[in-house]
Amino acid sequence: QVQPVESGGGLVQAGESLRLSCAASGSLFSISAMGWYRQAPGKQREQVAGIRSDGSTNYADSVKGRFTISRDNAKKTVYLQMNSLKPEDTAVYYCRRRTGNYDVWGQGTQVTVSS
Q1: Mean pLDDT value of segment 69-77
Q2: Where on the phi/psi map is residue 38: left (φ > 0), alpha (ψ -120 to 50), or beta?
């Protein structure tokens, strides 16, 4: 019922890096599937990366080789390491937690990449 909380967004120049964090709470984090999504103004929300409870991952083609998703179950936290950022990565980034039929989103954190 409690939203995960994103942090780490900011304004950077093209080519630089950021690491986003998503802090969850409560029980059953270790069996939760976690995902990062982004939404730019006027565009639909899209999935950037996902990580399952077994540690397997998936990425959007647009970020493969540049972004890495990881999780720390002891800290109940998921990370998104974002390298070689491009202006087209500019968006609000959201964290999503799924545990069985439970589905909850964070409030989002802004990432802006300048030329």
Answers
A1: 97
A2: beta
φ/ψ (deg, to 5) at 27: -95, 170
Alpha carbon distance 69, 78 (integer Å) = 7
Phi, psi of 56 (to 5 degrees): -70, 150
Q: Which of 55, 58, 52, 47 is nearest to 95 (CA)?
A: 47
Tens-place pLDDT, residues 84-97:
999 999 999 999 99
Q: Which amino acid, residue 46?
A: E
Residue 109, helix vs strand vs coil: strand
Q: For residue 87, what are its two tokens?
A: 């202006």
